[in-house]
């Protein structure tokens, strides 16, 4: 069973508005165990709508359409359903009464143009809209020997969500071949190697068609491995995912720092809290991003004692309080200095990024100081978060050693 | 001339990630006078990708694809192009060299897996990717007697945007028929009053149907007034907007700090640069966000001398170096201390947010110290950006006084 989500509106195809309904509907369908194959967004043009409704009905078993049910001339969803599936529009007296009541309750008589909101493709069911004037469409078709069920809901998120929850969700649950089949995603967060290198370490695991499926995505140098399973409940889903999760952890070892939702600062924060230890940092390249990350992490917040921002190598040297003998040495001195000044167990420091894109960072603790250097090629907006993560990861590895 | 945007990835169809690339690309295409007819999002399945590439090529003149160009097994865009349009994949030695150089410059040998990123559908042009390993595809086809041009770019927003701006935009501009009617937005950025209060100050200006139309949006306490016009060129668009822009500036005066794309740190940075002055900051509630904002602003970067992170009132008091006589006094002392320590013209300081949600912030300069207090009801995380802006705005007003 596969679903397609169709969003309708010039404001979406023109980029004036961001479509969040489709993401929400995808998550809801996933929770019903129905995979979403496509999202389609179409402008308010009758031909386009007819076109994409036919395509959706040809390749999906469930189609959920949002938008285009208003009363104005550019609301074409009803007409598109009628033309695409050859269903003449018919007036639904009950819906008309509902719409008239809504206006009456505000002491207004219904404008004639709202009458169109009570017109429905022949043979469909009406999806009630308690919060608005536009009821939804629930149409079941036989198409190329398959049964396809199409729903149309208003684009207003509040109305769409309420109508989904009150009516459509249950209706689909009933339809669904394997009812109450859940889809669950389990994530392992990794840091320290490139995407392709990491995949080489997991031979054949990212391959399409593997059960359970493993997906890999990268965001600012943090790699997320997503194991997707489905089953009748969470216990069954987790049971299917566990062997794969265990295998990945065994292969990647310390490269895995956390699970769904974790960032490096959360992992570091948990380790600091468990050890009852604290940290301070001196930042050049990251300009406060490490301090901000540790402060915003509920796990790390209490262990962060404070920091120093030194934009230039000169400002860093002044702070480190030694004649500069190479950037790395200055950074190491700064790590010791900030640890000493704030009286913490760990002191972090990162130097500025030089013309060649090179920078050094260090961690100081009771055992001494360790430092590493790195090189950025990417866009400056990318390197700052990446550099902050490298410093946090050096601390993480230091604490594990 | 009509365009279609195709986004690829399970993380999008499953609803795990929100697709923002398609919105951005739609706006960019609109600026080129090219209407977008459809957005399509497809899962990482070869059949689905081939299917939706063919459909897009059948109904659009320009197709822009994002995602699926990574080195791993679930990156299928190249293969989908090859199958959909019957173009065997061929190795591009130049791209391979570029990818190898990127790894080499980081002192790493290229993993074999990345070799696939140098494979391209026969007869296409390569879109250079200065910030990443995945070059893009630029393929022109004859299809049903029409010429269709398809581009494939990485899903990483920063790479996609740079490749669009450096290469694709110009290529399409060349393709494009006579630049159709342009739509232009002119923004005025405001800070210091609430949205409804500001609307009261602009009687009847936000009304629907006004020409030109004025829209109002708020993001983290920064209010954006957007004047929308359309015309045959920028000169005509601006001529239509100018009287409205002037009227708004006259009414709002110093509440307006900038124009399209401006943030408070940019406005403050321009003022500091013009005056040849510098600033340093001591942050509790904002935990480095002010330092980061000033550093990331090209206009402010050179005027920022450095800062101090003091997470708690106690840490702040220790730094201020005086017995605490009420938070405001400590914050004022910290502003003077950081100004003195970094030898800057201005010193900024903000205290922690107390249990009641109250916090103080101050600006110190040669004339003395000014401070203000504020109150948050929301969660500190949400309030942090607003607090940082309040401090920058106090500096802005101090410099104007």
Protein model, in words:
Two copies of one chain form a homodimer. Chain A is an alpha/beta fold. Chain A folds into three domains: about 170 residues, MoaB/Mog-like domain (Molybdenum Cofactor Biosythetic Enzyme, Chain A, 3-Layer(aba) Sandwich), CATH 3.40.980.10; about 80 residues, Alpha-Beta Plaits, CATH 3.30.70.2860; about 130 residues, CinA-like (Maf protein, Alpha-Beta Complex), CATH 3.90.950.20. In chain A, about 40% of the residues lie in helices and about 25% in strands. Chain A is built from 13 helices and 17 strands. In chain A, strand 10 and strand 11 form a beta hairpin. In chain A, helix 3 crosses helix 4 and helix 11 crosses helix 12. The longest helix of chain A is centred in the last third of the chain and has 21 residues. The interface between A and B is large, with 78 and 80 residues. Chains A, B: Belongs to the CinA family.
